[in-house]
Design a protein that fits this description.
Blueprint: H1 2-13, E1 21-29, E2 38-46, E3 52-58, E4 62-73, E5 76-81, E6 85-87, E7 92-95, E8 100-107, E9 116-123, E10 129-136
Bound molecules: copper (II) ion.
Length: 138
């Protein structure tokens, strides 16, 4: 009886282990006509129990992929490399317009609203993590 009750509690609380690194809400901005570069956004949560270091990204659909951070200071907007990016245990890092983004350059084909774009997040001491992002019109 006790075992049975315990398993019910585990079921209710979701005993399925969360992935060590969880990516949710991934999307890619549909680029305006005649532009090549675009950006991907997502939320990354580190459940691994350890600090992880995001080292970069790559995609079969793009010739160059980088992790950038957009900052605006004194009215001037600039993008800088954000890697290596340390993510502490239990920390969530939000990639969003105007901030961190996966810079997608040199596309190998055009993309449109509703398409899926695959890219991999590369970590310093972990296996790459494949992310499937949906293309959305801004
Ligand atoms: Cu950028």
């Amino acid at each position: 009886m006790r075992t049975c009750l315990l398993s019910i509690i585990l079921m209710l609380t979701g005993c399925a282990p969360r992935p060590a690194i969880e990516v949710t809400g991934a999307w890619v901005r549909q680029p305006p006509p005649h532009t090549s570069a675009t950006a991907g956004y997502l939320q990354l949560t580190n459940n691994s129990g350890d600090t992880v270091v995001l080292a970069g990204a790559r995609s079969p659909h793009y010739g160059r992929v980088m992790i950038h951070r957009t900052t605006t200071a004194d009215g001037v907007t600039t993008m800088r490399h954000a890697t290596p990016l340390r993510v502490g245990d239990s920390e969530t890092v939000v990639f969003e317009p105007g901030g961190l983004h996966v810079m997608l350059m040199q596309p190998r084909h055009s993309i449109t609203d509703g398409d899926e774009v695959v890219f991999e997040l590369l970590f310093a001491e972990r296996e790459p993590l494949t992310v499937t992002a949906v293309v959305r019109a801004p």
